[in-house]
Automatic annotation (TrEMBL):
A Pfam family recorded for this sequence: Methyltrans_RNA
Domain Ribosomal RNA small subunit methyltransferase E PUA-like: 22-68
Listed Gene3D superfamilies: 3.40.1280.10, Hypothetical PUA domain-like, domain 1 (2.40.240.20)
Localisation: Cytoplasm
Single GO MF annotation: methyltransferase activity
GO terms of biological process kind: methylation
Protein's job: Specifically methylates the N3 position of the uracil ring of uridine 1498 (m3U1498) in 16S rRNA. Acts on the fully assembled 30S ribosomal subunit.
Ranges for domain Ribosomal RNA small subunit methyltransferase E methyltransferase: 80-239
Coiled-coil boundaries: none
The protein, known as: Ribosomal RNA small subunit methyltransferase E
Organism of derivation: Streptomyces mooreae
Catalyzed reactions per annotation: uridine(1498) in 16S rRNA + S-adenosyl-L-methionine = N(3)-methyluridine(1498) in 16S rRNA + S-adenosyl-L-homocysteine + H(+)
SUPFAM superfamilies: alpha/beta knot (SSF75217), PUA domain-like (SSF88697)
InterPro entries, per database record: Alpha/beta_knot_MTases, PUA-like_sf, RsmE, RsmE_MTase_dom, RsmE_PUA-like, tRNA_m1G_MTases_N
């Protein structure tokens, strides 16, 4: 089994052969929940592509341990990158979408309040919900042993999503009535891929027209209709395989 991953603020001053202290909530999780002991392997990451690989040198109390760093590893920047614009699902299915997309390997997630979204993020609820999505991405990043965690952006309006799509190297709207399958779409070898996942009620005709003007065609995934909370994960997996990032 691969070594567990814990998040630290920075690895800027860490060097192989040195030590690093893990404390606070992450230290408590390592000591009191995971019950790590001296000699066990761990990975500490900043979530931005760098990981300090080492072993537990000492455990202090219930929330502090010292790691002897054996080596630093840096992940290569992914290319092409995959961004999913996720319409706000009902209930806790938004966190489910973020969790599974992160585990699969998505690079960025953009919350979108589509016209047919039942859920609306306003005021304090918006800040709280966005915080949950970002916390979910962090935890899923650690669970899936990633060194680079996906960015969860601030929510975008439909017009802002159109601007994002216009700047992409490949843009697509996942739509059950799309005439072309995503599995055969011509993809760029590098740059940025942006996918739009609509809400339970679907992407409205007005939104489809606006996104088409921005260069995003509708594509279908398969013969079955996926829920909004699972479509982004399925599409990400498909593209990771097709672009060679899973090779």
């Amino acid at each position: 089994m691969t070594a567990p991953v814990f998040l630290v603020d920075s690895l800027a001053d860490v060097r192989a052969g040195g030590t690093l202290t893990l404390d606070g909530p992450e230290g408590r999780h390592a000591v009191s929940v995971r019950r790590l002991r001296a000699g066990e392997e761990v990975v500490l990451t900043d979530g931005h592509g760098t990981g300090a690989h080492g072993t537990v040198a000492a455990v202090e109390g219930k929330d502090r341990l010292t790691v002897a760093v054996a080596e630093l590893r840096t992940e290569a920047s992914p290319d092409p990158t995959i961004t999913v614009v996720q319409a706000l699902p009902k209930g806790d299915r938004g966190e489910l979408a973020v969790e599974t997309m992160t585990e699969t390997g998505v690079d960025a997630i953009v919350p979108w309040t589509a016209a047919r979204c039942v859920t609306q993020w306003k005021g304090e609820r918006a800040a709280k919900s966005l915080g949950k999505w970002r916390a979910t991405a962090r935890e899923a990043g650690k669970q899936s042993r990633r060194l680079t965690f996906p960015e969860v952006a601030d929510p975008l309006t439909t017009q802002q999503v159109a601007t994002l799509l216009a700047d992409a190297d490949f843009a697509a709207v996942l739509h059950e009535e799309g005439s072309s399958p995503l599995a055969t779409a011509e993809l760029p070898a590098e740059g940025r891929i942006v996918l739009v996942v609509g809400p339970e009620g679907g992407v409205s005709p007005e939104e489809l027209a606006l996104f088409a003007e921005a260069g995003a065609r509708p594509y279908r995934l398969g013969t079955s209709v996926l829920r909004t909370s699972t479509a982004g994960t399925a599409a990400t997996a498909l593209l990771l395989g097709r672009t060679g990032r899973w090779s």
